[in-house]
Amino acid sequence: MLKGRLGLETARIPHADRHGLIWLERGELCVVDGCLNFLSGKHTVEPHILQVPHQAISMILLGPGSSVTHDALRLLARHGTLMAAVGVDGVRTYTAPPLMPDRSDVARRQAELWGSPRRRISVARHMYALRLGEVLPHRDLDTLRGIEGARVKTIYRLMAEKYGIKWNGRHYDRGDPGAADTPNQAINHAATAVQAAAAIAVQSLAAVPQLGFIHEDSGQAFVLDIADLFRDSITLHIAFSAAKKISEGDETIIDRLVRREASTIFRKQGVIPAMIDKIKQVLRTEETNGSGSDSNA
């Protein structure tokens, strides 16, 4: 019945053979003549139509000012193409429909490493090595957290000095986040933006958000793990750069200013693709099951 409608008889292309992500914003994702299209300027004299190669990409990131039709969702589901509603340049992630990918290798590898206490601490030590620049001899997670916490205090101070920001230490009241000074508020907002980028990276690989190696209780534990890998190189630069602009008289509210800074850095430095590569690195997905050594992590 209705053979060819929405291209439903076409076979899927495996995700391993597809390109990565595509950003679309300020338009309508719809189906025209069985093909996925993004229509922008719908109410203008000459609307722009972009045909989206939905079978050749893994995930569509739908930005602000966008809508999606029922037929478009059906087409994406049929071909296993993921879609997430996000902020500009991925500084927020709002929802990702549970369209399952065609492979489970990343999730299985993550579960395999997480399920073994020895391998789990090995991955955690690897993550700390990436963050701290050295492999620590300790194998107790609480000890590693304590060492990292002490070094982070130093990094905060050095970053504040670099940007010429007065720093009185890290303070955050969850019950009243607005009570913090400008640098601390900037760090909070920057951390939220980077976590959104990490969530997109985790979703795009179909990794398991709940199975963290350093963070444990959160439903986004692995997302927080990945976001922390970029704390020094991305999060703090976004935060202190925004705080500096405020100190120089910029009257933009701190949340909006941080989003703008994050958007610029994400785009220029390719943060989300870098996160995807980092996930593959920490999970060592290139290794076959049972091969390789975890003792060197």
Your description of this structure?
The protein has 297 residues and is of the alpha/beta class. The protein has 2 domains: 5-95, CRISPR-associated endonuclease Cas1, N-terminal domain (Ribosomal Protein L15, Chain: K, domain 2), CATH 3.100.10.20; 105-283, CRISPR-associated endonuclease Cas1, C-terminal domain (Four Helix Bundle (Hemerythrin (Met), subunit A)), CATH 1.20.120.920. The chain has 9 helices and 8 strands. The strands form 2 sheets. It has a 4-stranded mixed beta sheet, covered by helices on one side. A hairpin with a 7-residue loop joins β3 (35-40) and β4. α2 (105-115) packs across α3, α5 packs across α9 and α7 (231-247) crosses α8 (254-269). The N and C termini lie far apart (56 Å). Residues 1-11 and 288-297 have low confidence and may be disordered.
Largest sheet: 4 strands, mixed
The number of domains: 2
> What's the architecture of the largest domain in CATH terms?
Up-down Bundle
Number of helices: 9
- The overall pLDDT average reads 84
Structural features:
single chain; 297 residues; alpha/beta; Ribosomal Protein L15, Chain: K, domain 2; Four Helix Bundle (Hemerythrin (Met), subunit A); 4-stranded mixed β-sheet; 9 helices; 46% helix; 12% strand; disordered N terminus
Q: Could you give a short description of this structure?
A:
The protein is of the alpha/beta class.
Helix and strand arrangement:
Elements: E1 19-24, E2 28-32, E3 35-40, E4 48-51, E5 57-62, E6 67-68, H1 70-78, E7 82-86, E8 93-95, H2 105-115, H3 117-132, H4 141-163, H5 182-205, H6 221-228, H7 231-247, H8 254-269, H9 271-283
Parallel strand pairs: 1-5, 2-6, 5-7
Antiparallel strand pairs: 2-3, 3-4, 7-8
